[in-house]
Amino acid sequence: MRTVADILEHKPPVFNIISPKAKVIEGLQLMNSVNLSYLVVMDNGIFQGIFSERDYSRNVILKGLHSDSTSVEEVMSTSLPVVGLRTTVEDCMHLLNSHKTRYLIVFLEKEFKGVVTINDVLRDAIENKELVFDQLKAAIEQDQKIF
Known about the structure:
With 147 residues, this protein is of the alpha/beta class. It contains seven helices and six strands; from the N terminus they run αβαββααβαββαα.
């Protein structure tokens, strides 16, 4: 069964980092320059949260705040599901769905390791669909032998 460690192995190290004190406009410019929909908010190397396009639309635009005067920490997401390196891709799918989020935060004990996104999980499922179907076929064949 594939795990979070397998997903992170194929991702670059986290480079889309912003300070919680940065202004939202800086975050938007950085997201645009790195072509990602989220930034990892870090303060002195300590994970603080995620700032995403969704945070911008819901917590800045819809609340009438201004991008050049609002800090990232005022609008970022901090209540996100946390997974470990051994968490299975299937468990990630369930967490993303049940928490209605697009991001899972990865920790090894207290050390931040990265972010698994809904796109990472979908990409993994597509790339490994043959493996999934082979496992399903083997399970069905095993069940038929029992009966």
